[in-house]
Design brief:
Layout lengths: L1 E3 L2 H13 L11 E7 L2 E6 L7 E7 L2 H4 L8 H13 L10 H11 L14 E6 L2 H14 L2 E2 L4 E2 L8 E5 L17 H4 L14 E5 L4 H11 L3 E6 L15 H12 L2 E6 L13 E2 L2 E2 L4 E5 L10 E6 L17 H16 L2 H21 L6 E7 L2 E6 L1 H4 L2 H10 L2 E2 L1 E3 L15 E4 L7 H21 L2
Parallel strand pairs: 4-18, 8-9, 8-10, 10-11, 11-14
Antiparallel strand pairs: 1-4, 2-3, 3-4, 5-15, 6-7, 12-13, 14-15, 16-17, 17-20, 19-20
Amino acid sequence: MTGRGSDETLQLLRAGRDLHLDHYQSHRLPYAVIGGQGVNSRLMALDGADAGREFEVIDASGAYGSACLGAGHETVRRALARGVTEGGQATDEVGSLERARLLTTLFGPDGLWTDQFPTGEYHVSGRNSGSEGMELALRLVLESRFDGNRLRPVPEAAGRDLILAFEGAWHGWTSGLVPLLNRRHYRVGLPSLAPDGQYGVTVTHLPFGDPDVLADWFAENGHRVLGVVVEPVQGDAGILQPPPGYLRGLAGLCQEHGALLVADEVLTFAKSGRFFAMADEQGPIRTDVTVIGKSLGMGALSLSMVIARRALSPRGSGAVATSDLRPLACAVIRDGLELVVADKLLDHSAALGARLAELLQRELVDAFPDLYRESRGTGVMHGVELTERAAGGLARLREHVVRAGAYVEFMAGAGRRSRGLRYVFPTMRIAPPLITTPDEAVELVGRIAEGSRAFQGSQG
């Protein structure tokens, strides 16, 4: 569907863009969303010869991976209405009927997630975003060395001054999380965790997915490790999956050496064909803290949830949050999850993922070897890595793909890694909503291929 919007709308959208803080240093896409339904979004071109043109795209990004039910879903609309009209306004200082219904449904006896988090062993907090959730997770790890009642160190935690993270990882933008990233672009010029003093901490980075490196490092440093922070599938690094057994081995090393294991499932939540990617053929892999987000808000709200062992808690009032599982948020989460279960959307996404993997390999990697190096992924979380040549023209490639009717985003890739691991170039993320049909997946990949051909033609 194409058409032309009014000049008044075009001017309004341009004015709004100019007023919005530019996070991309003048490299934002020259489009605006003017509506959408399901997996489709309606865009308007803001600049160039076709400024004002309206056209439709399949949203392969799922709004940064958050819109698991697509746009305008009736279940979300009803949940929002109920949360506003019936939920009331409850802070974390008092109970809430909506909150109680949600938490008992998920974590109570025979709860939906008790296979991953056994009843009675965990407690839960809510936050506005994945970054805020990871900030609380990091706080819980750091405060495990601290007696909040006596305001003094816990003697048995003395010497625990290392936090292990992984090369290529992404855990959020906030200043407290930046030290977990081994990317100079995001760290330089900002404060870092102090390595000295009574509560000093040093962050160490290892290559992701190498069990021998991991075992050797723990053998040497295990007595000093306070916590380990890991994505079960690395997202911004380019959808990198560890080898079989790696995550369970990591959990075993943490348990053996007394380190806390934090799983960052902000991106992976509900995208791997199951709710949690911290699992393998043997079943769930236990963690001390798990942070989920993005899909949790069903594309309507920005939310995260921190699920932590009961022994982990901040000092009194030390983690109070305005947004901690408000009734409106709980209504949206519960109704959305009930739909995911009732419509068997996780099973659907697992089957869809197998089909996507086949299509992306055949229609992109095999068809355009000068543009795409490799396809990786599972469920509704795939990455198509660019070649070095294509990475140099990433912005123009993306614009051609969008104009062909597929809205895609690109991740930075892991870049240069240690221990002889190869460089990982920027990667196109394919993370459509859970409701995507097989026919829509075929159409999506076809449009990406069309944009790829157009990009090749523009190269001369």
